[in-house]
Amino acid sequence: MNIALQINLKQYFMKKNIAILSGGNSGEYEISIQSGNFVAEYLDFDLYNPYQILIKGKDWFYKAQNGKEFFINKNDFSLKTDEKKVLFDCVFIAIHGTPGEDGKLQGYFDMLKIPYTSCNLTTSALTFNKSFCKSVVSSLGVLTAESIHIHKKHFKDISEILKTITLPCFVKPNNGGSSVGMSRVNKPEDLLKAIYAAFMEDDEVLIEEFIKGREISCGIVKYRNELIVLPIAEIISKKEFFDYEAKYDPELAEEIIPAPITIEVEKECKKISSFLFEKLNCSGVVRFDYIFNDSGLYFLEVNTIPGLTENSIIPKMAKNIGISFQKLFSMIIAEALGT
User: Fold this and answer.
1) Closest CA to 202 of 25, 58, 22
2) What is the pLDDT of residues 165-203, one digit of tens each?
3) pTM above 0.85, yes or no
4) CA distances from 247 to 58, 216, 279, 336 (A)
5) Quick one: pLDDT at residue 13?
6) How far apart are the C-alpha atoms of 277 and 282, rounded to whole Å?
């Protein structure tokens, strides 16, 4: 074998430097840390060199095993430790909420031409805005609940809302996840309090009519340009709804995988989810949430950076069909790298 070929093969098989971003600037900070830790733990060390990067406001840093912290050079997203300068081949975004799920980091990495594991800037920004996303999804012929989108600077009173939205309803921050700041309102006198609670998390609030039915979720992973549709999960909350506490306390919710639903509902859910994945131009791993009843399947939201811990729904879905945690994360990175 000639020397040039040996060098090319060595470069091809060199381990890739992967930056795993967690933290962020939202109420999902702690969950994001857990997701980042889980990804780092199950990354294939034969293929990748993982570097956990914590983002908190303007502070972006890597913490070495000896506890020493090294700040990221944001000019080129590089890391200089005591031993070397590290350039990254790919970024695994595990930040739920801003700036990882709303397009901000995607735009930054686009400018630096560094591959990343999530949807692109436009898709991330659109899907993070619940109201805008629902409008697009509805225009594609998918059922959605009636809703009202209000802004803090224009909000005056609840009289017009009550003329349009019937109770019970859900009040939630328009830009956010994990049900942080979300409330179910059963009585008119509780609506204003719920709106102010949501405004504590976001300047925009979505008020959505309650749809009675069963909640199901469909995960999709894009790998080598093919969509792998994971088993449907049914979510049964022991609380009034699947709130933040129920999502992260296994004692407060039951996730049944595969969901005990008819073949017809399963096919319809997977068909709609695959359709939306393509139409919204999604990438990486995404989870679509729905409520279904005798009237049909109602779209709730899409999670473009879903939870990635041992207790999270996507890893459980993958495990159910024999995709290990390590394989799942390798698939996500390989798709981002185009390998």
Assistant:
1) 25
2) 888 999 998 886 556 778 899 998 889 999 888 888 888
3) yes
4) 29, 14, 28, 28
5) 61
6) 5
* Rounded distance between C-alpha atoms, residue 116 and residue 110, angstroms: 9
Tally of CB atoms within 10 A around 81: 12
DSSP string, 174-208: SB--TTTT-EEE-SGGGHHHHHHHHHTT-SEEEEE
Query: Phi and psi of 185, rounded to 5°?
Result: -115, 125
Task: Identify which has the larger pLDDT, 176 or 232.
Answer: 232
Residue 333 pLDDT > 50: yes
Task: For 286-320, write each residue's pLDDT tens digit.
Answer: 999 999 999 999 999 999 999 999 889 999 999 99
- pLDDT value of residue 161: 87
Contact 117, 333 (CB under 8 A): yes
According to DSSP, the β-strands at 90-93 and 16-23 are parallel
- What are the two backbone dihedrals, phi and then psi, of residue 111, each rounded to the nearest 5 degrees? -65, -35
Computed over every residue of the chain, the mean pLDDT equals 90
From residue 331, alpha-carbon distances to 119, 199, 269, 274 in Å are 15, 38, 23, 18
The DSSP 8-state label assigned to residue 234 in this structure reads E
The pLDDT assigned to 67 comes to 82
Yes or no: say if 247 and 313 are a contact pair by the CB < 8 Å rule: no
DSSP sequence for 264-314: HHHHHHHHHHHHHHHHTT--SEEEEEEEEETTEEEEEEEESS---STTSHH
In contact, 90 and 53? CB cutoff 8 Å:
no
Domains of the chain: 3-118 (3.40.50.20), 125-143+212-337 (3.30.470.20), 147-209 (3.30.1490.20)
Higher pLDDT, 66 or 127: 127
- 3-class secondary structure, 3: helix
Structure-token pair, residue 28: 């999902």
SS3 215: strand
Give the confidence band of 271 by pLDDT, cuts at 50, 70, 90. very high
